[in-house]
Design a protein that fits this description.
Four copies of one chain form a homotetramer. Chain A contains six helices and nine strands. Chain A is of the alpha/beta class. In chain A, the strands form two sheets. Chain A has a seven-stranded parallel β-sheet with strand order 3-2-1-4-5-6-9, with helices on both faces. In chain A, strands 7-8 form a two-stranded parallel sheet.
């Protein structure tokens, strides 16, 4: 079975590693991000299994159009990675309401909207004409997987990072709520807490041991996709072995 | 010392109990809420120590004006209770982006903005002309207390309540981040997890034991205000003794 | 109403502050600890409301005898503070099995046994001849409060403190289980996470702001005892305002 | 590379699935449990890669002898699964101190002792004659993996299961402490929260969807063993997709 995956918020680093790994496992992968030149060059590198869909995740109409394009090119979505996050690294007195809102829109609101689009494919309608399934067992979809990328600040509000922490908590609350709502209906919702810095793809670092290898992170994302429905994980943490935590 | 307190999001039930208790302890209390008739009647009942300030907490300019009025009438703010929350009780497929955003604005964004206003009074400027303190010890404020009202869904994303859960998580992440940032600077930030239904003020219930008494909750809010700075609580939970949890 | 309280594991510092505060609130307080000279001198200082009961909390027969003496002198127990903890501060490779066991016995096993003794008084029998209540509503006791003293390591296993962390987690698991079992039957079980060093009673410290004031901690213990049964707290944390966490 | 694994507390069900999976991945696997006939029959079925070592995990001298035998037959230990747990399913008033202690000994104390034995192999000595490494970089071992099996009650003390909950919390505290202590020295310590019933190997169940498949659980255990040291997981949860949680 060829699965269709969407990585929302792909960039050099972890997003790219996830996309590469999913293609290597036989998925068709749609790359959603604002930077057109980057995702088109990545898609070209990945070949026919990849599709660049330039999307500003803060704009609902762009997300809607992106999923339409994905369905047209690759069919219904089976796997979604909500990977975007943003936010000025500022304290609660210094962050503006606009910066606060933007961090939440990129992380939580885009995460909800992308999930709604994906759930339409994963659950299908149930023939009652309401446009959404109601869990009565007549849904036509065959399930799927939605993974949210979290951070240390998803579980521990960080001093000096009010907007980032609050948005990351919002994403986690959304993921937990969705896991409880859609697990019984065949959709696996998971949240990964990445606790540490990810090794930068474009420059050497002094102590590489102190960073998470993005390809190794992608192993755990793929493990989540492959988990049997009798043993689904809601949350796992990942960190370098030398990380203090 | 007469303290000035702001209860943002006061209504019959817990908000009112907090306001009454704070007045009884000698505070001047500003009541912020949208329903003008209700808060004016409550203020009239509470006397000179209370001030009704009709405010739509989703409107930044109204929050700004409200705090100006509070300062003009009652002086700088010493205690803030971020008590508002909102959100359609819907699952992640059924909630609209607008409903999702509104729940977050009432809880998290208004909580941030009210806190920013209060922090200006609690921390003061530090004479460096930047308009915000920088923690170098020259701040002129004398500290204060900010309490956020949370719920079961603040710590456990609830099935079928995506917007409410996500907004409540966002508030908790903000509170934790602020506690770490402002504790060392003399502002006590706390988060109360109310785990259960609050006894309704206006009607009898069949099993009153199953509800939290809002006056009893107000005892714990006041305890947080009174805690010595050597022993500050970030989070406590409250529930009826018969609650299953 | 004069309440009878037992502080199991009293010493200079927090245990003593709790005992003093409870006496000041009108309780009769039994002081259980191994160091006879210390608790007798404290009891003499506190007057008729205090009773020194020398007890090695690692010895079940001594705990049993201690509660018999408390009942004989002060009547049935209404409040219990499980305050003892112990454990070599060693890593998992260096701690011996005996040290590991001793830390657990002082914290968790003594905590269970003291609670069993107190629950006999708090719940009473229910007349079915089995010697323990079964929650069918016919129990004769009038409830009570059991507070466990926890630490940072109760919620976060500490590097280099395997025995202490494991024992503190064991205590917290016991407290949570008991809170769920006995809350509906009228016994309030709470767990306090003390996150930081307690100000030493017998010497000056360089930066007193960095320590918790034991008298201030005792305020929160008393608040727990006084909470209305409609709003019981299972867990709260306490730390100095300058603590990094 | 052929790895030597020890499964401490193997039985029909998850322990056996783990052993089978590890053998399939090329490990030599030592099976430690009290029931001699069962583990010998399992070892016979698994062939030369398996070794039955009858061991009562409540007896320190038997654990010591077991690891000696494992080393003699299979060489130094690379992977340890601390899988045993025990405990009467009783409330805090009804459980005896002996039952409480036994649950802790099987889970926490045996977990510590087996880990100490395994760490000797994983870390080696460091040539300073003290018999234990000190993390100064001269240790001779090449690291390894220690996985603890947890349960719902590891993170949520259960009503009516005081001994089980307390022992499971104790195990989790030990695992967290060890993860922080030994991660930087090359040993991956992980804790798996199994949230639900495991499908019984020996009888049909009415609703198989409600159970975790032990072979599928073993997939996640193996994933933990295989994780790159730049991305180690401390904790993950596993549950059936229909589980309410």
């Amino acid at each position: 079975m060829t699965r269709t995956a969407v990585v929302a918020g792909v960039g050099p680093g972890l997003g790219e590693s996830i996309a590469r790994r999913f293609v290597a496992e036989g998925c068709r992968v749609a790359l959603l991000a604002r930077t057109e030149s980057y995702i088109e060059s990545l898609a070209a590198d990945l070949g026919d299994a990849a599709l660049a869909v330039p999307t500003d995740l803060t704009r609902p109409e762009e997300i809607e159009a992106a999923f339409e394009e994905v369905r047209r090119e690759f069919g219904p979505v089976d796997v979604l990675v909500n990977h975007a996050s943003g936010g000025a690294w500022k304290g609660a007195r210094d962050v503006s309401l606009d910066e606060f809102e933007r961090a939440w829109r990129v992380g939580a609101r885009a995460g909800l909207q992308c999930s709604q689009e994906a759930l339409d494919d994963m659950l299908g309608g149930d023939g009652d004409g309401t446009g959404s399934g109601d869990g009565d067992g007549t849904e036509s979809g065959d399930g799927g997987t939605i993974v949210f990328t979290g951070a240390t600040s998803s579980v521990r509000g960080r001093d000096g990072a009010a907007a980032f922490s609050s948005a990351k908590f919002a994403v986690r609350g959304l993921a937990e709520s969705m896991a409880r709502e859609f697990g019984p209906r065949g959709v696996h919702v998971a949240h990964v807490v990445i606790d540490g810095g990810i090794r930068p793809p474009d420059r050497a670092v002094e102590n590489p041991e102190e960073y998470l290898d993005p390809d190794a992170i992608a192993d755990s994302y793929w493990h989540l996709v492959e988990q049997d429905r009798s043993t689904w994980t809601l949350e796992l943490d990942l960190r370098p072995h030398v990380e203090e935590f």
